[in-house]
Write a structure and sequence with these properties.
Helix content: 25-40%
Shape: globular
Strand content: 25-35%
Bound molecules: adenosine-5'-diphosphate, magnesium ion
Number of domains: 3
Structural class: alpha+beta
Radius of gyration: 20 Å
CATH topology of the largest domain: D-amino Acid Aminotransferase, Chain A, domain 1
Number of helices: 12
Number of strands: 19
CATH class of the largest domain: Alpha Beta
Largest sheet: 9 strands, antiparallel
Oligomer: single chain
Distance between the termini: 41 Å
Amino acid sequence: MEKWIGIVGGGQLGRMLANAAHELGFKVAILEAAPGSPAGLVADREIIGRVTEEAGIHELANMSDHMTFEIESADAHTLRELTRAGFDINPSAETLEIIKDKFRQKEFLRAHDIPVADFALIESVDDAKRQAEIFGYPFLLKARFGAYDGRGNRVIRREEDIAAAFAELSSSPLYAERFVPFMKELSVVVVRGKKGEEKNYPVVETIHENNICHMVIAPAEIDGAIRTRAEEIAGRVIAHLKGVGVFAVEMFMTEDGDVVVNEIAPRVHNSGHHSIEGCETSQFENHIRAISGMPLGSTALKAPVAVMVNILGDRTGMAEPRGIEEAESLSGVHVHIYGKVETRPERKMGHITALGDTHSETIARATEARKRISI
Ligand SMILES: Nc1ncnc2c1ncn2[C@@H]1O[C@H](COP(=O)(O)OP(=O)(O)O)[C@@H](O)[C@H]1O
Ligand SMILES: [Mg+2]
């Protein structure tokens, strides 16, 4: 009998989840506001509707054996009611409710003694000015809701930046956060199955430019004590969250060798894309395995090093991917294009994974592959 996976959201994460679900024999339905989304293009059924509204989520639930989401803006209230009504939805809607509000998420982490940067709710420009006296410059203003890929963050370097940030981020309430002068950014992707079993992917380093992820290096080049600390903290974070599936914990490694949590994603994550070619079982396959009650696969790396580079748009217009063959002519290089019709500056259009034996050589090859591609 056919079994259906329902995914709230039609972006590239949904697309890669759908591909993994197909390989395990599932049919896939997705919910997205417009037809032809990255996930819609590969799904068996596209439901057109907003991820923030009840109607489409109900329709998706009614045809799904197991349901999940690929975006934090998914309507947590509706997902919670459907869970109460007996639908199988993971990770839990309660988890989504905590995480989708970045301020509440930080309070939750602090309440569980997880190390985080100081933060404070602010309601006005004057509030922010007062907070700046406590935090000093630079500090960050962050949107509580709907932020992703750096779009909800502003680094405030002087008092004059505050009003501009308020104007630009005005669609969401804000909070302030102390700037962390980090040495590296790290991420741990963890998967939990229905029997409670947990596995984590090797700790990776993520490199952001302009607050958006450009490169992921697996495994991170860090000493054993930091690796253990990052894994331990990720484990503690996940232990407080309900539901099964993949979670990612983004962290800062500080100058004094400590680890501070930046944010949690209750879903597959950009810092796990290299796992498609680089690990025994990809994060996408393990997520589908988890939510459908199958045993989890190994998260071990298959090559000594895997490097992922995002293909970000650099102009506004119709996407015209070029140079894929030239990039893939480099050994161990795999190119993924998400099928987005329009490109925009810093929009995630695809990614490259390079596998290799050493960090420096694999980073160089991934960088060269990226240069060969234009969108
Ligand atoms: N408190 C901070 N101190 C220094 N850099 C930060 C801080 N918060 C965020 N950043 C930088 O901005 C990036 C994006 O911020 P994040 O809060 O993770 O938002 P997003 O939801 O866009 O990923 C981080 O990966 C990091 O590079
Ligand atoms: Mg982030």
